[in-house]
Design goal:
heterodimer, A: 690 residues, alpha/beta, Rossmann fold, six-stranded mixed sheet, 20 strands, B: 289 residues, mainly alpha, 2 domains, two-stranded antiparallel ribbon, 10 helices, 2 strands, flat
C-alpha cells in the first residue's frame, strides 16, 4: 500500500546511511488514511515544522523551533540536553500538545499530512503509539490482558479483534500469553516487564509510528537490554519510530538516523549513528548528551579503527582483535600483584585485604585505613511481611571507603542502606556506625534524636523532593545544624557556606519544591552534608539523570570523599561503580553474594551473572578480548584505557595508566612511567602483542 | 487494518464474547459472583431500608442472620478466616446491645420489668429491647453493605455500571484507574516518611506533632500525586481514552437466571422477616416479650 519512496538525504552524511529497504512497510494493518493520504512521492510520515512548545506552568516558549522529518521504516534517535524540550516534542506528535497537556504549540506537526492542530489525539492515537518513561504511570487496569486491550477498546475495535491484537502485541514484546500470564496484575511485573507491557499497549493500537520518550530511563541494565532486543525485532518488521533516549549502548545500534538538538532545540547535526558519534564529539559534549560507551572507549584508545565508529563494546572489541587498532592501546598493570585469585571472594564477612594501590589507600585519601570501621553489619537479617529482605548480611566499611551496592530490583539494596541509617528494624543481628549500634524507631529517638543523630549519617534519597521538610532553601539547610544544637552564628555560617558552594544562594528564600530537578538534587546533597557526616548514604543518586547532572553529582561525591567522608551508594550503573567506587557488594534475593574490591567483582562474570547483573561496557569490551589475550582480563575502568586528553597523535606509545587510580589526585602525572612503580608482572606495553 | 474504525457501530456497547482468558481474579467461589453487581446493590439497599424502619428488633436481626448466611453460602470463604470474623462481630453486637441499653433514656424502660441485675445496675426489659434494636440495625446494615459488594470485582462493577446503568464510561473507568493510585501512593508515602525521619523531622509526640508530620508529608505527596495523575491521564489519552462516546466491552454482562433468582430469594427473606421474624426470633432476643 505504501508508495515507493526515495528517502531524501537527511543530512550531509546521508550517503553513508545503511539502506532502509523501501518495501519495509510500517506496522501491519495501517493502510493509508483516506483523505489524509499524503499521496505518492511526499515522503515523511511525520513532519515537524518550526515546532515550539510553551508549557503553561513555565510560561515561556521552549527552544527556537525544531524541524524534523520521520520517514517510513526509519528509526530516528533524538538527542539533546535536558531542558531542550525533547519530551515536549514527543507529545506534539500525537497531538497531546496542544489538545490534552497544559501546553501550547507553535509551528506545525503533520502526521501523514494530517495537521495535529486541527486533529486531536482521539484520531491520531491510531497513527502514533506512545511509550512514556514511567512504567507505573501507564497502567490503568488490573490484568495484563485488560491493559493491552484498553487502547483498542477505546477505538471501538470489535471485541474478538481486540483480543487477537492484544495477544499478537504481547507476543511481539515477549510477554507470557498463557492464561496465567494474561491474568497477572501489571503491578506484580518487574519494571522491565511493565515497560514492555507499555510497548505492547502501544503496538496493539497498530500505529504507523512509535514515539518512545526515554523508555528505559527507569530500568536496570538487563531490562534495558531486553527492551531494545524487542525493539530490534520490531525494527526488522519495518516499524517506524522516534526514540528519545540517553542510554545509548543498546539504542544507538538500532538507529537509522541520529538527530542532535542543542539547548535551543535546533537540529545541530543529523546522520547515521556512526557518523554523528564519530564526527561530532565536541557538539555532543557541548549539548551534554551521552555517547555510546564504545565511542568513549575508542576515543581513549586513539583514532577510530578503520575509520568507522563502533557502537557497541563487542563491535569495538572485534575491531581491535582484527588489529585495526594501534597496538599502543593495550592496557597495562591491571593484574594487581597482591591479588592472587582475588576474583573468588564471595560472601566475605569482611572485605578482602585491599591491594596496596586501591583508591581508598591512595596517599591523598584521609588516613585511617587501619582504623575502626565506619559502618558495620553483623549478620543482619530483616524480615518484612513474612519475607526475608536481608538474609544474614555481614559487611564492614572502613573509613574513607566508597562502597557500591548493586543487585536486581528487590534484592535488598535499599533495605541495606536503610538498615545502616536506622530506618529499618532489624530482625536479627546488629548494624553499627562508628562503633555504636544503630537504633531504630522510638528507642533511637529517645536515645539521642533522629537516625542521623549527631550528624553522623547523611542520606541522599532517590527522589530529592521526599526529604524536604521546610518552606525555604535556607531553612532546609539550617534544619540539620539546628537539630544538632549548633548556635545561631555557627548555623548561619554553615548555611551561607553551603548556599555558596552548591550554587543555591540565588534561591535561598525560595521553596525547595520550586527548584529545578538539578537544583533539588544539589540541595538534597547539601542538606545531607551540612552536618559534616562521617558516612554518606546515596540511594540511586544518578537514576534517570542526564550526563551533566551525573558528572556534577559524582564530582561532589569525590570531593566529600577526599575530605574524609565514607560513602555507601546503591546504584544500577556498574560503569559508574567501576570508575568511582573502591568496593562493590552484590546482593541477590537478600543475600550478600560478593563483597570485594570493585575490579575483583566486575571481572568475575559468574558473580555478576548469579546476581542478575550485566557487566559494564568497558568490561564487556575487555572480556571479549581477554579470551584471546589475558592482558585484558582485569580491565573494567575507563581509566584503564588511558584518558581522553592524553591522546596526542600517533606516537605509538602505550597509555598505561594505573588501573586502580580512578582520578588524577595523587596519581602519576603522565601516561608514561605510571606502570613501573612496583614492577608488576603484567605486560608493560604493546610490544608483547603478536 | 483500519476497517474497524469507529463510526458505523450501532448505539450501545459494541458486542463482544465473554472472555474467560485474562479475567481479573474472581472474588470468592460461590454463586454471588454470578449475580449482577447492581442487582446485589439494589437488593441490599431495599433490605437496609426495611431493617432501619422496622420497630421490632426481630426484623433487623432476621435480616442480619440472612445476610450473613447468604454471604457465606455465596462466597464460600475459608472457615479459618470467616469464623474469627463472625465471632468478633457477634461479641461486638452483644456489647452494643448492653451499651445502647445503658444509654437509653429512662422513659424507654419505664414500666417494664427488670430483666438484668448486676450489683447496683438494673436493666429494664424496655431498655434492653431498645439496645437490641439499635445493635440489630447496626449489624444488619453492616452485613447488608458487605453483602452488596460480595463477589463483585471492580471490573464487574464498572461493566455493570456502563452496560446496565448507562453510566458514562469515562466516569466509571476513571474511578477504576484511581484504584491503581493506591499502591503508588502507599510506596511514595513510605519513602517520604523514611526521608523525613532521616532528616529528624518526625520528632515529638501527641496529636499536634502528628498533625505537623502529616502536613509536612502532604506537600511532597500531593506534588508527586498530581504529577503521577497528569502522566496517567496523558498515557490514557494517548491510547484513545475518551475518543468516542462509547467503547468496546469485551465482557458483556450475561443475563442469567441468577439475577431474578436472587431478587426472588430476597423478596422471600424480606417477607419472612416482616411477618414471621418476630415469632421465630423473639425467644432468643433479649427484652422481647
Amino acid at each position: 500500500m505504501n508508495p515507493p519512496r526515495t528517502r531524501p538525504a537527511p543530512g550531509p552524511t546521508a550517503t553513508a546511511t545503511p539502506s532502509v529497504t523501501p518495501s519495509a512497510a510500517p506496522a501491519d494493518g495501517t493502510g493509508p488514511d483516506t483523505g489524509a493520504d499524503p499521496g505518492p512521492g511526499s515522503g515523511p510520515l511525520v513532519r515537524l515544522r518550526g515546532v515550539r512548545v510553551r508549557h503553561h506552568a513555565a510560561g515561556t516558549w521552549t527552544g527556537e523551533g525544531t524541524d524534523l522529518e520521520l520517514f517510513p521504516g526509519e528509526l530516528v534517535l533524538l538527542l539533546g540536553p535536558s531542558g531542550a524540550g525533547k519530551s515536549g516534542l514527543a507529545l506534539t506528535v500525537n497531538g497531546l500538545i496542544p489538545h490534552s497537556a497544559p501546553a501550547d504549540l507553535d509551528g506545525a506537526v503533520l502526521v501523514r499530512g494530517t495537521d495535529t492542530r486541527t486533529t486531536g489525539t482521539a484520531r491520531l492515537c491510531t497513527e502514533v503509539g506512545m511509550v512514556f518513561q514511567d512504567p507505573d504511570a501507564q497502567i490503568v487496569t488490573r490484568t495484563v490482558l485488560d491493559e493491552v486491550c484498553f487502547g483498542p477498546e477505546n477505538t471501538l475495535v470489535p471485541a474478538a479483534e481486540v483480543e487477537r491484537r492484544a495477544l499478537a502485541a504481547l507476543r511481539a514484546v515477549g510477554l507470557d500469553t498463557g492464561p496465567a500470564g494474561l491474568r497477572r496484575d501489571p503491578a506484580s511485573l518487574s519494571g522491565g516487564e511493565r515497560q514492555r507491557l507499555a510497548l505492547a499497549c502501544a503496538l496493539a493500537m497498530r500505529p504507523a509510528v512509535l514515539v518512545l520518550d526515554e523508555p528505559t530511563a527507569n530500568l536496570d541494565p538487563l531490562a534495558v537490554r531486553d527492551f531494545y532486543r524487542v525493539l530490534a525485532g520490531l525494527r526488522r518488521n519495518g516499524t517506524t519510530a522516534l526514540l528519545i533516549e540517553h542510554q545509548l549502548d543498546d539504542a544507538a545500534p538500532l538507529a537509522d538516523r541520529v538527530v542532535v538538538l542543542d539547548h535551543r532545540a535546533r537540529v545541530r547535526a543529523q546522520g547515521p549513528p556512526r557518523e554523528v558519534f564519530g564526527r561530532h564529539a565536541r557538539l555532543l559534549a557541548e549539548v551534554g548528551g551521552w555517547r555510546p560507551a564504545a565511542v568513549e572507549i575508542a576515543e581513549r584508545m586513539g583514532p577510530a579503527p578503520g575509520g568507522t565508529t563502533p557502537l557497541t563494546p563487542e563491535e569495538l572489541a572485534d575491531a581491535v582483535r582484527a588489529d585495526s587498532v594501534p597496538a599502543r592501546t593495550v592496557p597495562a598493570r591491571t593484574t594487581p600483584a597482591g591479588h592472587p585469585g582475588g576474583a573468588q571472594s564471595p560472601c566475605a564477612a569482611r572485605p578482602l585485604p585491599r591491594p596496596a594501590d586501591s583508591p581508598a589507600d591512595t596517599p591523598d585519601r584521609p588516613a585511617g585505613s587501619g582504623g575502626a570501621p565506619v559502618a558495620e553489619l553483623r549478620s543482619v537479617t530483616v524480615r518484612r511481611q513474612g519475607r526475608t529482605v536481608l538474609d544474614a548480611v555481614s559487611l564492614t566499611v572502613p573509613p574513607g571507603d566508597f562502597l557500591a551496592v548493586a543487585g536486581t530490583n528487590g534484592a535488598g539494596k535499599t533495605t541495606l542502606l536503610r538498615t545502616l541509617a536506622g530506618l529499618t528494624a532489624v530482625s536479627h543481628g546488629e548494624a553499627r556506625v562508628e562503633g555504636r549500634p544503630v537504633r531504630t524507631g522510638a528507642r533511637g529517638r529517645r536515645a539521642g534524636g533522629w537516625p542521623g543523630a549527631a550528624g553522623r549519617i547523611g542520606y541522599v534519597f532517590q527522589n530529592p523532593e521526599h526529604q524536604f521538610v521546610t518552606g525555604s532553601v535556607r531553612a532546609e539547610l539550617a534544619h540539620g545544624p539546628r537539630l544538632l544544637g549548633l548556635g545561631r552564628e555557627e548555623t548561619g555560617a554553615r548555611v551561607d557556606a553551603a548556599l555558596d558552594r552548591f550554587g543555591l544562594t540565588r534561591y535561598a528564600e525560595r521553596s525547595p519544591f520550586l527548584l529545578s530537578h538539578g537544583e533539588k538534587r544539589r540541595l538534597s546533597v547539601a542538606t545531607a552534608l551540612i552536618t559534616g557526616p562521617r558516612l554518606l548514604l546515596l540511594d540511586e543518586p544518578t537514576f534517570g539523570q542526564d550526563r551533566a547532572r551525573t558528572a556534577e553529582l559524582l564530582a561532589l561525591v569525590d570531593e566529600v570523599r577526599a575530605a574524609g567522608t565514607t560513602v555507601v551508594a546503591v546504584t544500577h550503573d556498574l560503569q559508574l561503580v567501576a570508575d568511582h567506587a573502591a568496593h562493590l557488594a552484590l546482593l541477590s534475593r537478600g543475600r550478600l553474594t560478593a563483597h570485594a574490591p570493585v575490579r575483583d567483582v566486575l571481572c568475575d562474570d559468574t558473580l555478576l551473572d548469579a546476581a542478575g547483573l550485566r557487566p559494564p561496557p568497558v568490561r564487556r569490551f575487555a572480556a571479549r578480548l581477554a579470551a584471546h589475550d589475558p592482558v585484558w582480563s582485569r580491565v573494567c575502568r575507563l581509566d584503564d584505557l588511558g584518558r581522553p586528553g592524553e591522546f596526542d597523535g600517533f606516537a605509538g606509545a602505550v597509555t598505561p595508566v594505573g588501573p586502580d587510580e580512578p582520578d588524577d589526585r595523587g596519581g602519576p602525572e603522565g601516561p608514561h612511567g605510571a606502570d613501573d612503580r612496583d614492577g608488576r608482572d603484567g605486560p608493560a606495553g604493546g610490544e608483547d602483542r603478536p | 487494518m483500519t476497517t474497524d474504525r469507529p463510526g458505523s457501530a450501532p448505539h450501545g456497547p459494541a458486542p463482544g464474547p465473554h472472555s474467560p482468558a485474562g479475567d481479573p481474579p474472581q472474588a470468592g467461589r460461590g454463586f454471588l459472583r454470578r449475580v449482577d453487581p447492581l442487582v446485589k446493590l439494589g437488593v441490599s439497599l431495599v433490605a437496609m431500608a426495611v431493617a432501619y424502619l422496622a420497630g421490632d428488633p426481630a426484623v433487623p436481626a432476621f435480616l442480619l442472620l440472612a445476610a450473613v448466611a447468604v454471604h457465606l453460602a455465596g462466597t464460600l470463604p475459608h472457615p479459618g478466616r470467616a469464623l474469627p470474623a463472625l465471632a468478633a462481630a457477634g461479641l461486638l453486637l452483644c456489647w452494643f446491645t448492653v451499651l445502647f441499653a445503658l444509654l437509653a433514656s429512662a422513659d424507654v424502660g419505664a414500666g417494664t420489668p427488670i430483666a438484668l441485675s448486676w450489683g447496683p445496675l438494673h436493666l429494664h426489659a424496655g431498655a434492653l429491647r431498645y439496645g437490641a434494636l439499635v445493635a440489630a440495625r447496626i449489624g444488619a446494615i453492616a452485613a447488608l453493605s458487605l453483602l452488596a459488594g460480595a463477589g463483585t470485582t471492580p471490573e464487574g462493577l464498572r461493566t455493570a455500571l456502563v452496560c446496565r446503568a448507562r453510566v458514562p464510561y469515562r466516569f466509571a473507568h476513571a474511578a477504576l484507574a484511581g484504584l491503581q493510585f493506591v499502591p503508588v501512593f502507599r510506596a511514595e508515602a513510605d519513602h517520604i516518611r523514611a526521608a523525613h525521619r532521616m532528616r529528624g523531622a518526625d520528632g515529638g509526640r501527641g496529636p499536634l506533632a502528628a498533625a505537623r508530620r502529616a502536613a509536612r508529608m502532604l506537600v511532597p505527596l500531593l506534588a508527586g500525586g498530581i504529577r503521577h495523575a497528569e502522566r496517567v491521564s496523558l498515557a490514557m489519552d494517548a491510547r484513545g481514552f475518551g475518543a468516542h462516546p462509547r467503547r468496546t466491552e469485551r465482557r458483556l454482562p450475561r443475563r442469567t437466571l441468577a439475577d431474578p433468582a436472587y431478587c426472588l430469594g430476597a423478596l422471600a427473606v424480606l417477607a419472612t422477616a416482616t411477618t414471621t421474624g418476630h415469632a421465630l426470633l423473639s425467644p432468643v432476643l433479649p427484652g422481647v416479650p
